[in-house]
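Dear Dr. H.,

I hope your travels went smoothly. While you were away I took the liberty of generating a structure for the chain from your last submission, since the lab meeting agenda had it listed for discussion. I wanted you to have the full record in hand beforehand rather than looking at slides cold. The sequence, exactly as received, is reproduced here:
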Amino acid sequence: MMWPRWRRASAGLRRRSIPGDAALFLTASRFLALATIDSHGSADVSPKGDPSGALIRLQDGVACYAERPGNRRADSFRNILVQPRIAAAALIPGAPQVAILTGRARLTADMALRQSFAVNGKTPLLATCIEEPQLVVRTSAALLRARLWPARPQPHDINPAAMFAAHVRLNRTRGLGATLLRAAVAVPGLMQRGIDRDYKTNLY
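The corresponding predicted structure, in token form, is as follows:
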């Protein structure tokens, strides 16, 4: 009997070199969804991504991950300070498993720890450590149904620079700064060059 396409794909993924040990799986992960809660019970989920080995590690009974610049909203920071219980889901691209991590988080500026998470020569300003972590790795039926792997290329009709430029042109805010920004997005290619530079210099 012919298997559905997603089952055939998942069988191929299981034959790849995916760490069987939970701690090694966590270290090899490249995407993390972090869930925190504020003092009023409102939840926030923050996505985090880094190269394998530079995202999150479990060592000496503590799980730690780097805090990158991101969108600079600091929602997770504020939530952890008032309610340190967190949950996170970590993924390895191509793997049908997900690592579920829970525990009590604390922020740290420990230099040695931060330097161990340096990427492209840039050391994060903060790291978060999860104490008494509970970690389990299990196959996710949702990942299999979503058919995320292999990742598909970005559709040709999606142009982030053009979308951002259109948003700026529709903004009716007045003032010198807004006028200069609208003039800047009218320059051909300027917005795309700005986005490319931002990804290259400000990601870390």
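Two observations you may find useful: Helices lie at 5-14, 22-28, 75-82, 111-115, 141-146, 160-170, 176-185, 190-201. The chain has two domains: 5-146, 160-201.

With kind regards,
E. W.
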